[in-house]
Structures are given as structure tokens and as C-alpha cells.
Amino acid sequence: PGMPSKRGYGFYYPVSEPYHTYSANLAYQLRQAYASTGLIDDGDHCVWDYDNNYEYYAIHRKGVWTGMPTMIIEHAYMSNQYDLECLLNDDMLHQMAYADAKGIAAYFGIK
């Protein structure tokens, strides 16, 4: 059942430029917002498929091909008991949703 050692929130975004830079800047803003949730920062993840020479995640491939920035936000890992309890807690879900909104707003310069 998954990787119990994985814990917390993380951001998955493209390796390809300029999308990497756009997404890294968004991840920075999201990280600032997520600091208040008490979840562990699992970091940034950018994965390249070296066998096929393109972005590993399909959403990132399609984004690069169509000119659209993409990001996967891993809010918490269901394979980790602590994180699972957070995902089942309405207050924590509200905190995560608020952190998403706050980080995205900050990225676009909205207060």
C-alpha cells in the first residue's frame, strides 16, 4: 500500500523551460502558504523520462506541447497514517484549500 515513508506536501512540475521557472515560482509561493498547515515539506519534484526524452508526467508533456504551465500538488500521502488522518479532517482540508488559494493569489500578485 504505497510508500509509508512519503509524507507531507510536494510540488511536481515540468523540467522544460519556460514552464519550469513559472512553476518553480508558483511552488515557492505555495510553500510559503503551506508553512502554516503543519504538514512536512516533501519538496519539489521534476521528473524527465530519459528513455523517451520528454516529461515523465503526461499532464506536463501535454502542457509543454500546448504551451500551458502545469503543476501537480501533492497535498498529503494516503499511504502515510498521519497524512491520511489529515486528509480525513475537514479543518485540515480547509487549511490546505486556503493555502492553495493564498499561494496562487500571491503568485499573481493578488492580496
Task: Tell me what the structure shows.
This protein is α+β, with helices and mostly antiparallel strands and 111 residues long. It has helices spanning 19-34, 58-66, 81-87, 90-107; strands at residues 9-12, 41-45, 48-49, 54-55, 72-74. The strands form two sheets. A three-stranded mixed β-sheet has the order 2-1-5, with helices on one face. Strand 3 and strand 4 (54-55) form a beta hairpin. The longest helix has 18 residues, at 90-107. The protein is globular and about 40 Å long. 26% of the residues are buried.
Strand content: 5-15%
Structural class call reads alpha+beta
Radius of gyration: 15 Å
Order of helices and strands: EHEEEHEHH
Q: In summary, what is this structure?
A:
The protein is of the alpha+beta class and 111 residues long.
Please specify the SSE layout and strand pairing:
Layout lengths: L8 E4 L6 H16 L6 E5 L2 E2 L4 E2 L2 H9 L5 E3 L6 H7 L2 H18 L4
